[in-house]
Amino acid sequence: MNEAELSTVPLEARPYQGATAGVFTRVVANTVDALLVTASLIGAYAGYAAFRFIVAPRGFRLPAPSLLGVAIAFFSFMVVYLTAAWWIGGRTVGNHVMGIRVVSRGAGRVPFVRAFARAVLCAGFPVGLLWCAVDGRRRSVQDLVLHTRVVYDWRSRSGGASLP
Amino acid sequence: MELALDLVLAVVGGAVGTGVALVRPPVKLLALGSSVVLRPRYVPARWQPATVIDAIALRGAARRVQVAHAVDRAVARLDLAAIVTRLVDLDKVVSTVDVQAVLDQVDLVAVVEEVLAAIDLPAIIRDSTGSLTSETVRSARMTGISADDAISRRLERLVRRRPSSISTMDPG
Lengths: 164, 172
Description:
The complex is a heterodimer.
Chain A lengths: L22 H33 L11 H22 L4 H6 L1 E5 L7 H13 L6 H4 L6 H6 L1 E5 L12
Antiparallel strand pairs in A: 1-2
Helix pairs in contact in A: 1-2, 2-4
Chain B lengths: L1 H37 L10 H29 L2 H8 L2 H6 L3 H7 L2 H12 L1 H9 L5 H25 L13
């Protein structure tokens, strides 16, 4: 009685498990992550505004961060979020929704430094993702530089990229 | 009273002493006879009865080992399962087994707990009923896979690249 016999992955999706994910799935996953980070940023802004209101209610005005400040905050949030998600479980919330996972070349977990570097590259150069649409082996610029892969993996726990 | 007690003790003591005196000589004689018969002093050791008996015992032990090995070899050559299934009506035999009695001896609760621990049932339930693996998400994932394939095929046609399939995708 092994895991394969009890896999919860639907039959029609099993042949794809472990295969490299394509551009559409990855763009959707990244969009979900970007929305999530944006929501976190808005939440942080609201929290900061509420804090300022509590501290000095009489002279309260909504904080008006500069565009550069917002960009830096977004970039920082994104890098921290992506690094933690890929390092800990190999997948972000967007990856989880779309059933994909970031793995190193040997289908193992991505080490911290590589996860951080990939997060910086993804947040700083998101267009590099589109290269996986034209690459024969579906590798983005980030994958080519850091020797990572993004594979279909519908299982909730990480266990390599083998078939379910 | 004391006189009676003394009398009894005297009788018992006399009886024990007489018994020991009567039994000791035959026992000594028996031991002496045994050594005389089995190990006669003036017969060469190789011809003494004890030596001959020991040799027979050793030979018998060796033969028993040889027979056991021969039986093992013979049994190993036989297809016992085929013989049993050919000659024995297993259904009839099994029907005589009290399965309930066997089950009563099995700790089913422990077995079930072991199986549940091995298959990680909570994870399976979580996977199959969790909100992120609902029908909607499954559909979105499958749509994503189909769209990925469609985009790949279209781009392959555009650049006239060798078509890739799941089996030819980068495995590592």
